[in-house]
Amino acid sequence: MRHSEQVRLVKELLARLDSGTNVDAGGLRKNPVSAYTDEALATREWDEFFASRPQLVGLSGDLPEPGSFITTNDLGPPVIATRDADGAFHAFVNSCRHRGAVLVEEPRGTSRRLVCPFHAWTYDSEGTLVGLPKKDHFGEVDTECLSLVELPALEWNGLLYVHPDVDGTIDPGAMFPEDLAAELAEWNYGELTYLDSDSYDVDCNWKLAMDTFGETYHFAALHKDTLYNMFHGNVQCYDTFGINHRMVLTKRAIDEMRLLPESEWDITVAGLPVYWLFPNAILMPFENGAYLVRAIPDRERPGRHTSRIGFYLRPGVSAEEYFNDPEEAKRQIGLESEEVELQRLIAEGFANIIRDEDYWMSASQQRTAESGHIEFSLFGRNEPALHHYHSTYRSLLGLEPLPLLTEAEV
Ligand code: FES
Ligand SMILES: [Fe+2]
To answer: In which element (H, E) is residue 219 found?
Structure first.
């Protein structure tokens, strides 16, 4: 992020801290809880937001070298994404062209040859069929016509996008307004290395998982013993970029940073930028890396979803650098072993907060929504991200906008 923009955002956070104010959505909105329970709506969301749009499957660091691959079933068809011998990114339907077995079941790995477990047909990382055992017995086939089915794929500023439709297009110019595209490029996501990943199956709609990243009003209550120690609650910056948006949360470290000259201000010290990339990705760069959260809907059940979490680090970052005080971090997270690996420390820390606090609350919201006794939830003035996000998806589905209400109208 340009330093001038960092300074602008830090000043905005400081002004809000000093005046005891927060961003203001201009009113309140009532959101019908059917947004989280309606099966027909869930089908439409899948068709409009997931099956017919490019999907973020990871960051460049997920495919660190030629021959690296990742697989996913989150896009509808089973998909394998690869980095070929020349470093180019590809995506294919993860299905052998002989009799359709899933070619690779492992979630990730490195192999320049992808061998089908059924009869050992073999493909390279460009999807070309390069081996067919006992060809003379099987019969003559034109191997050139039996490459893996390729899907549109684009590696863009360190983000890996795949379109689940063979005929789909991936156009970053259509996905990101120019200012957001430039800002995403400035974070150099392409240089991050993959550290680890985790996934949480949660009894809540995918949008409830997204919602929990949409405000910091809850920090002083839900996260009073965890995040609230590190962040000021209910103070944030908020900017929209078309159907995407960016929040900046306020770290308590801003209190010391404000004493430094502006030239030394750093937004990752003063805060945590949270990019919400439509439809389901939350990308959070921090000084030593980035977290990527993707909420994957359960196509059968609107009240379920899976969150996939990716942890990425700047090259060479050690545990000491990641945690200012690794021993204190271990104590807080409750890990006793001296041999705790950095991966586990980060993954457990994230799970203790996002899975065990935020998503626990999301699941409780889902239960009450499904009770049929609650008609709507309320988005406050200090929760503008929720207004924007829900208005965006409703508008893309052709649904009535949620009216902005004054306090007297609620
Ligand atoms: S299905 Fe893959 S080799 Fe037969
Ligand atoms: Fe939270």
So the answer is: helix 219-222
